[in-house]
Amino acid sequence: MHSVRSLVSGQTTDAPGGVRTIANPARLDEIVSEAHLGDAETFLQACRVAKASQLAWSSVPAPVRGRAIQQLGRLVEDNAETLARLITQEIGKPIKESRGEVQEVMDTCSFFLGEGRRLYGMTVPSEMPDKQLFTFRTPVGVAAIITAGNFPVAVPSWYLVPALLCGNAVVWKPAEYTPAIADAFAQLILHAGLPEGTFQMVLADGPATFAGLERALDEGVVDKVGFTGSTAVGERLGELCGRHLQTPCLELGGKNPLVVMPDADLDLAVEGALFSGFGTAGQRCTSLGTAIVHRDVHQDFVDRFTKAVTEAPIGDPTRDVLYGPMIDERFAARFEDWVELIRDHHHVHGSSAVGRITRRAPREGFVGDDPEAGFFYHPTIVDGVRAEDDLYRIETFGPIVGVASFDTFDEAIALANGHGYGLSSSIYTTDPLHAFRFRERVSAGMVSVNNSTSGAEAHLPFGGNGRSGNGSRQSGVWVLDQFTRWQAMNWDYLGHLQKAQMDVADVAADLTYRLPE
Ligand code: UN1
Predict the structure, then answer these.
(1) Could you give the angle at the alpha carbon of 223 between the alpha carbons of 217 and 227, nearest 5°?
(2) Quick check: 454 and 275 in contact, CB under 8 A?
(3) What pLDDT score does 226 carry?
(4) How many angstroms separate the alpha carbon of residue 458 from the centre of ligand 1?
(5) Potential cystine with 428: which of 73, 83, 269, 433 (Cβ 3.0-4.6 Å)?
(6) pLDDT tens for residues 126-137?
(7) Is 474 near ligand 1, meaning CB less than 6 Å away?
(8) pLDDT tens-digit map of 353-366
(9) CA dist., res. 95 & res. 490, Å (int)
């Protein structure tokens, strides 16, 4: 059993916020960890420590900071299997996906260790002689990073790694229900060679974190907020940061569409829908929300999709399954509400029942001895979804996928965008015209062609629009704009003042000149 406390200046802290016990969601009688939560004061204190340490860290040359990221990547690699198993144990992610998640952390480190030797600015020509212009990336200061538990190390690494590389100090608030994973990742970070106080991990619940953040912003000890989680919380954080003239990096929900054109390879589309709809039990922000299928191939698609989902292995996440349990009790409880959104005009497919898999509502081929030992849920395909349905509009974080149909391309686009989210999207087609028109007109920040809505690579910009975020992007070079500010410098070494715009030499052209006819 892992007993976890917040880590400030590398030391464990008091836990005035109470204790949470975390069970393995696939085997509820196995207690994995105990989270000793901090409170608003713990969060504020962590931000103060980070503020006091940031200048020293930013003074370390960027290539040397890159070296710390390199060491972190090595530590993650050398501890990869332990970390992956812990992910599977604490949130029930299938072991293969857990390994993929750890790989994503390594990929992020690999990208940013080199960025320490780039972090390029520019030299820019001046209007005047004997004067030079330059741009520099400067760190923002203290980054407060608040992340969800469905990707308990990969998504945090998208923030923490570039934030540190750019010379910021960091306070990380992981999900309360992944304390053991958070502690493991925090230990790897703390062993990577950062100076004391550069990185803190605070375990706290949502309200305490919000209160602590509010005070930290008032006190000026937080300069950037990064948040992955629900749209509702993202809106509140956006308001709070806006009061301090700060723009948070927000990565919020999704209702990701997968459009199937009549010319699509249907088996490929089904494969994509199966993975993006039900991988991680639908608990990714990139999970498929609604498959939007052309009327001519609708029935064929639904039949093939139903077969694939019905036959998919579900159960014990340590084995080779499509998905395991819901990652935490609260996600299981919320999923019970989403299932209530199914209406009489819908047709349900994919399993022998809807809701929790129990002895009375079994799932054929369940992988494991006792489905009631964990939070296992039937996969649910809901056919006949329409634009006016709640199921069309509301993000349902779990193993449920809607299927809608369309006649014209314009209708497909309207359905792909109409819910107001704009994170990921996908189109299955063999026609480049459809693929590129879709790219142009879909509101999502990410577009897949003949690929699922999930599975973003670690070095392409990740992020959404509308209800999915405020346009900020993570990953690759794009995230550098979240964790640095551009500073412009000019240096005039002529010896007397040259005024921009006014003292600029002209070129004497003869603009009356015309070519002989
Ligand atoms: C998330 O669910 O918050 O593209 C991120 C994917 C993963 C990341 C998902 N690499 O599905």
Answers:
(1) 85
(2) yes
(3) 98
(4) 10
(5) 269
(6) 999 999 999 999
(7) no
(8) 999 999 999 999 99
(9) 53
Does the structure show a pLDDT above 90 at 456? no
pTM: 0.96
For residue 183, what are its two tokens? Answer: 């502690």
Catalytic residues: 285
Residue 191, pLDDT above cutoff 90: yes
Query: Which contacts qualify for 244-249: CB closer than 8 Å, 24 or more apart?
Result: 244/217, 246/217, 247/470, 247/472, 248/224, 248/470, 248/472, 249/159, 249/224, 249/225, 249/472, 249/474, 249/479, 249/482
Question: Measured in angstroms, how far is the CA atom of residue 454 from the centroid of ligand 1?
Answer: 6
Q: Which atom of ligand 1 is nearest to the CA of 462?
A: 4
Average pLDDT value over all residues in the chain? 97
Task: Flag whether pLDDT at 489 surpasses 90.
Answer: yes
R_g (Cα) of the chain, nearest Å: 25
The conformational region for residue 441 under phi > 0 = left, psi -120 to 50 = alpha, else beta, is: alpha
> Does the Cβ of 454 fall within 6 Å of ligand 1?
yes
Ligand 1 pocket residue status of 150, Cβ below 6 Å: yes
Kindly compute the dihedral angle of the four CA atoms of residues 399, 404, 409, 411, in this order, to the nearest 10 degrees. -120
